[in-house]
Amino acid sequence: MKNAPQIDGFIGAGVVLSGRLVFEGTLRIDGKFQGEIDSSGTLVVGEGAFIDSMSINVDIALISGEVRGVVEAKTKVELHSRSRVYGDIKTPVLVVYKGAFFEGYCEMSKYRQTPSNQVAIEIEG
């Protein structure tokens, strides 16, 4: 993952959790999680991770694993090369790397805060 942030919390591979997840800072998930995620921080979804959530509300979402559900990020969502997202994305900035898979709707206009001379969608190769 390019420019990986410092990790404050970690849910490792082989761990299965369900419920409501609230955190501050940066949380990385490499295991499986089912439920709601609510944070003002950064969510990092590792390559082997699986998240099934009706609601993911974070500041930044960096996704390399599989996510099913609605992802709402105040700043941006990055879909890395091995990511698979089935569901809707709501964010002002969406970065999609080559090899990422996304099936769903993306809503940006409501969340867009970038000046008109900046690109809100970036496609990385």
Shape label: globular
Distinct helical segment count: 0
Number of strands: 13
Structural category is mainly beta
What would you report as the Rg, rounded to the nearest angstrom?
13 Å
Q: How far is it from the N-terminal to the C-terminal residue, by CA?
A: 13 Å
What can be said about the biggest beta sheet?
13 strands, parallel
Q: How large is the share of residues in beta strands?
A: over 45%
Order of helices and strands: EEEEEEEEEEEEE
Kindly state the mean pLDDT as a whole number?
A: 90
Runs in which pLDDT lies below 50 for 5 or more consecutive residues are: none
Proportion in helices: under 10%
Describe the structure.
- The protein contains no helices and 13 strands.
- It has 125 residues and is mostly beta strands.
- The protein is globular and about 35 Å long.
- The chain starts with 8 loop residues before the first strand and ends with a strand.
